[in-house]
């Protein structure tokens, strides 16, 4: 199974406004059943990655839309 870096999801969210209620289904539609990894975690589902990003304050919601906190995102691949 494919493992994608969380940065791919971060870039995807950053490029288009996604409603919070549609975020998980949109990610699954774009990336399929891929697993995700970050600098500190591996083998995450889309749900686990989104939870991780939100807890790390890399992802937040305003007016029911998902946004990336660019200042909290590391700048490597």
How does this model look, in words?
- With 77 residues, this protein is α+β, with helices and mostly antiparallel strands.
- It has one domain (3-71): Orthogonal Bundle (Arc Repressor Mutant, subunit A), CATH 1.10.10.
- Helices cover 38% and strands 18% of the residues.
- The strands form two sheets. The chain has a two-stranded parallel sheet with strand order 1-2. A two-stranded antiparallel ribbon has the order 3-4.
- A hairpin with a 2-residue loop joins β3 and β4 (65-68).
- The model has no long low-confidence stretch (mean pLDDT 92).
Write the layout of secondary structure elements.
Layout: E1 3-5, H1 6-15, H2 23-31, E2 35-37, H3 46-55, E3 59-62, E4 65-68
Parallel strand pairs: 1-2
Antiparallel strand pairs: 3-4
* SSE order: EHHEHEE
Strand content: 15-25%
Reported for the largest beta sheet, the result is: 2 strands, parallel
Helix content: 25-40%
Q: Report mean pLDDT, rounded to a whole number.
A: 92
- The CATH class designation is Mainly Alpha
Trace the largest sheet across and list its strands.
Answer: 1-2
Query: How far from one another are the termini?
Result: 19 Å
**Net shape:** globular
**Rg over C-alpha atoms, rounded to the nearest angstrom:** 11 Å
Low-confidence stretches: none
Q: Can you tell me the number of structural domains?
A: 1
Alpha-beta classification:
alpha+beta
Q: Which terms summarize this structure?
A:
77 residues, alpha+beta, Arc Repressor Mutant, subunit A, two-stranded parallel ribbon, two-stranded antiparallel sheet, 3 helices, 38% helix
Short description:
This protein has 77 residues and is α+β, with helices and mostly antiparallel strands. The protein has helices at 6-15, 23-31, 46-55; strands at 3-5, 35-37, 59-62, 65-68. It has a single domain (3-71), classed as Arc Repressor Mutant, subunit A.
């Amino acid at each position: 199974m494919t493992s994608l870096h969380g940065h791919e999801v971060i870039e995807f969210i950053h490029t288009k406004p996604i409603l919070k209620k549609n975020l998980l289904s949109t990610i699954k539609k774009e990336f399929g059943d891929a697993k995700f990894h970050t600098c500190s975690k591996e083998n995450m589902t889309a749900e686990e990655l989104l939870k991780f990003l939100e807890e790390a304050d890399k992802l937040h919601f305003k007016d029911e839309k998902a946004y990336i906190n660019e200042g909290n995102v590391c700048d490597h691949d």
